[in-house]
Amino acid sequence: MQMEKKIKVIISGGGTGGHIFPAVSIANAVKEQHPNAEILFVGAEGRMEMQRVPEAGYKIIGLPVAGFDRKHLLKNISVLIKLAKSQWKARAIIKEFKPDVAVGVGGYASGPTLKAAGMMGVPTLIQEQNSYAGVTNKLLAKKAHKICVAYDGMDKFFPSKKIIMTGNPVRQALLNNKVSKEDALASFGLDSRKKTILILGGSLGARTINQCVMGNLDKIKTSEVQFIWQTGKIYIDQARKAVEEAGESENLHVTDFIKDMASAYAAADLVISRAGAGSISEFCLLGKPVILVPSPNVAEDHQTKNAMALVNKLAAIYVKDASANAELIDKALQTVTDEKLLKELSDNISKLALPDSANIIAHEVWQLATNKQR
Ligand SMILES: CC(=O)N[C@H]1[C@@H](OP(=O)(O)OP(=O)(O)OC[C@H]2O[C@@H](n3ccc(=O)[nH]c3=O)[C@H](O)[C@@H]2O)O[C@H](CO)[C@@H](O)[C@@H]1O
User: In what way does this protein cross or attach to the membrane (predicted)?
Assistant: First the structure.
């Protein structure tokens, strides 16, 4: 039997979970389809990917790249120097690793890496998670061979002949989860007889959502419902202090970051969340009833657009960031006891799932690497 060609793949990007986890999921799918494929991640020094990618079992090299500071223009001199250094380092990595293909998932590092790859004749594929294209991906699109997207209408940003509708890749461990609801609840120290609300702020945490929880701790403590509250790393101390002052309570599990999202989803009857594209893909694939509070602080208000694609199909409940303090917790407590509404939300959101995204993208990666479709 003829040995399969061994392909080498660079995957680059990160900054937040929304870029990192699709990248890990693409890597897993490539490895599953072609076990002897060699994969190298290129991230940004000091960012979340430098921890999460090795945890997922892959090697990563960091570039000294940083984002532009739109408020303090002078600071951008050092940003430009870092960018030049990153460009140089990306070239050196590509020269040494000799990838057959480079995949960009958005975020700081993917700019210099994919630019260098393109200039050195390595075919490139980009994956855009949102309904609005990020600056880096728009710049890289001209040279990219394939652009994998999750929303309709992306030809506003990218050449339509390069676009493939794949949906966002979701980590395989979430989809193949076998843990029971009882075991999942037990892993968070919670009671299997009670309804459970999972509160998520995206990979970095969400200030507004945290404030809503902190402002309603009495209501939360005295409710018949229990909560898993993910605060994000920068808010955890403040959150713990607030809980301590209000008096610890058995129906509230607080954490900065949830590693085992499969159990968190299995435990939850209802989710409260920001409207990051990756989170939304997970809710769709797992059929989770959700209240979305889109972040107003992201480019072109893209989270509201992500959210509205669901809300308009009665597949999610919408609470505006500015109204969250007044409405969010009451709405969640009402919704979680309304079985009919929970079922309707779950049925409707399930219809929007795009399964198999990682496998489809992995197949495209293989095609590019083996020179079949350039
Ligand atoms: C503030 C910001 O810039 N947000 C952007 C970022 O969101 P963010 O980084 O929050 O990303 P997403 O909502 O897309 O995905 C979050 C991911 O983190 C995982 N997770 C989350 C919490 C946790 O404790 N553990 C855990 O593993 C989720 O399961 C999910 O896989 O990237 C998204 C995708 O480009 C964008 O749509 C968001 O607008």
Answer: Peripheral membrane protein
